What we know:
By secondary structure, the protein is of the alpha+beta class. It contains 23 helices and 11 strands. It has a domain at 107-270: Butyryl-CoA Dehydrogenase, subunit A, domain 2, CATH 2.40.110. It has helices at 8-12, 18-26, 29-43, 58-78, 83-93, 98-113, 116-127, 279-309, 328-363, 370-398, 410-417, 427-443, 461-466, 480-502, 508-514, 516-539, 548-566, 568-573, 579-596, 600-605, 611-614, 625-634, 647-663; strands spanning 133-136, 152-156, 161-165, 173-174, 185-194, 197-207, 220-224, 240-244, 247-250, 259-261, 267-269. Helix 6 (98-113) runs antiparallel to helix 7 (116-127), helix 8 (279-309) packs antiparallel against helix 9 and helix 17 (548-566) runs antiparallel to helix 19. Residues 17-132 form the Acyl-coenzyme A oxidase N-terminal domain.
Amino acid sequence: xxxxxxxxxxxxxxxxxxxxxxxxxxxxxxxxxxxxxxxxxxxxxxxxxxxxxxxxxxxxxxxxxxxxxxxxxxxxxxxxxxxxxxxxxxxxxxxxxxxxxxxxxxxxxxxxxxxxxxxxxxxxxxxxxxxxxxxxxxxxxxxxxxxxxxxxxxxxxxxxxxxxxxxxxxxxxxxxxxxxxxxxxxxxxxxxxxxxxxxxxxxxxxxxxxxxxxxxxxxxxxxxxxxxxxxxxxxxxxxxxxxxxxxxxxxxxxxxxxxxxxxxxxxxxxxxxxxxxxxxxxxxxxxxxxxxxxxxxxxxxxxxxxxxxxxxxxxxxxxxxxxxxxxxxxxxxxxxxxxxxxxxxxxxxxxxxxxxxxxxxxxxxxxxxxxxxxxxxxxxxxxxxxxxxxxxxxxxxxxxxxxxxxxxxxxxxxxxxxxxxxxxxxxxxxxxxxxxxxxxxxxxxxxxxxxxxxxxxxxxxxxxxxxxxxxxxxxxxxxxxxxxxxxxxxxxxxxxxxxxxxxxxxxxxxxxxxxxxxxxxxxxxxxxxxxxxxxxxxxxxxxxxxxxxxxxxxxxxxxxxxxxxxxxxxxxxxxxxxxxxxxxxxxxxxxxxxxxxxxxxxxxxxxxxxxxxxxxxxxxxxxxxxxxxxxxxxxxxxxxxxxxxxxxxxxxxxxxxxxxxxxx
Length: 664
Ligand SMILES: CCCCCCCC/C=C\CCC/C=C/C(=O)SCCNC(=O)CCNC(=O)[C@H](O)C(C)(C)COP(=O)(O)OP(=O)(O)OC[C@H]1O[C@@H](n2cnc3c(N)ncnc32)[C@H](O)[C@@H]1OP(=O)(O)O
Ligand SMILES: Cc1cc2nc3c(=O)[nH]c(=O)nc-3n(C[C@H](O)[C@H](O)[C@H](O)COP(=O)(O)OP(=O)(O)OC[C@H]3O[C@@H](n4cnc5c(N)ncnc54)[C@H](O)[C@@H]3O)c2cc1C
């Protein structure tokens, strides 16, 4: 029935103030106001319609994206939206586009690695979109191994230029989003060669296309790399291929904050660490963690609403059947994902703070927290994107058969999201970076250098190697100190075990390769500890609103105990908890699911997603699923005609043949 809220009774069961929870989710009252206003603006604009994406051809899809991005830019300028509002608008338009890379990587790369003069020259053009840029680092032959990039930038002292060249097929730039068909400029990464000497990989601004007719400039070959996973999905993006044939750029187009090349061709290293060349990746990894909570919460919102609408079995005396959300198995799959969405939100907030802090320190030439910022952004990007990709797929299964329909919104969400496990650093490669950081931390424990920040707990390693979990009753698992100690002990013991195993190898690098699977598990344990501890820290804040803090406490405990249950092997093997304590944790978890149940719909309402953004018949706010699913099916282009195209050509002759055979 149109206009009826089928989930009203669910909403009336909520034991907390949903409006206040919306503020917590958004981060502040101001952020909620902006987000709410902009999401409605997008939802009410027919130009941002997105329900036809899966039936468009690649060319139509791409042109449609160009139209939407142009319209979005028009609205941003007409309404004089602030940077915050404009970024929310792009978010709610919900279509991967070249603008993500222009605003998300090209501009940050110039900001982070350019000199003051370079910022003055390039940023105004980029901010007004008078140039459009992308981030061209990865090549056909190398992505993870940035030091293995082959593109060269050779300094020519005669002309005061760099000659950018792709010496091999594998040196072709491959993957950069926005490169294939749109970008006029790119920040490219190439080996700096002066007088035959290789100074490693640096960033350069290169113009790719003519500002008059958009044709590639001389010496440049550029195009799209082809269709990607899923229909619609990430195919709105023109991931590209790019080759240079001795393309000349002025010397001042090398990004020179980290190192400089003088007019005489002298290489000068600033007093900033070389790793700052990788700075844009640190920035983007941090935004990807925040984005993980958005993608996961979206899938969870769909699966939770649908689980409350869907009924199967359990009818007594002809009464209504059981809502599938009331099955404990459904709860044990769904509620940890709901809790994870909140956990990732808060760790994302914290990571943003850490990033801002490290940026301010870098400006004051304090580089001391850079290794930790790198380890945290790399590790949390890996942890949250892997969990989110798996979580979206689990939500699809939680919706049964209907979850497999594009109209559920889940297949496209999954297809758009999964590459997050690969881009901005393959998730395993990033965990190995965390593992290196942990092994370094452990190796320095006796040296008097006290671990700080997220590894501060390692400073109590002696105690953590000995401690015994104090849990005697299931309720003991609700104490934050008990949870923290278990996670700290598990992480410390796994790292120490790896460090000890490494000493069995004469060559530490060989040992690192041999033990790399164990090392990634230690890294995961450390990253999960960070997420759990940041959730617990969040709960120490003053959180207004009836019942809001209580609900968050329930979710925090679900998140921690679910992880404990999932990684029981780690906790038992390291002797952090006993089998009896593991079973008490499981009892507590079941009880927490029951406490979360009446609040589940309100907890997903707190994400404040419009139906337009969710793009899901199953996740509709009003729960009016069946008539809309039915309606949606008839909109499929296959249903444009009753008898399909191809009947005369293929079906009819086959049927006739069968008829003839039968008569024989
Ligand atoms: C609508 C919502 C929008 C949300 C957000 C939108 C933004 C757009 C988002 C998505 C669109 C997709 C865009 C995708 C873009 C890309 O994929 S760009 C390409 C990204 N590529 C990678 O991530 C490559 C991964 N590889 C690396 O990062 C590195 O090469 C490496 C794996 C770290 C290894 O590097 P290397 O071999 O050079 O280094 P090591 O020898 O291991 O380490 C040397 C020391 O340096 C330290 N280090 C390494 N990296 C960093 C860093 N980034 N910062 C600081 N320090 C770093 C490392 O720890 C070593 O330190 P040590 O010597 O003290 O041990
Ligand atoms: C949708 C999408 C958008 C992208 N956008 C951009 C962009 O805008 N700009 C850009 O420059 N790039 C972009 N990329 C490229 C992306 O950053 C790389 O694909 C990514 O960094 C992974 O590198 P790779 O492809 O070389 O993987 P590989 O490193 O070749 O990975 C292959 C396998 O090898 C494993 N492996 C690799 N090294 C190790 C190791 N040391 N130890 C153990 N296992 C290892 C990995 O775990 C993986 O299983 C994009 C990629 C995708 C999919």
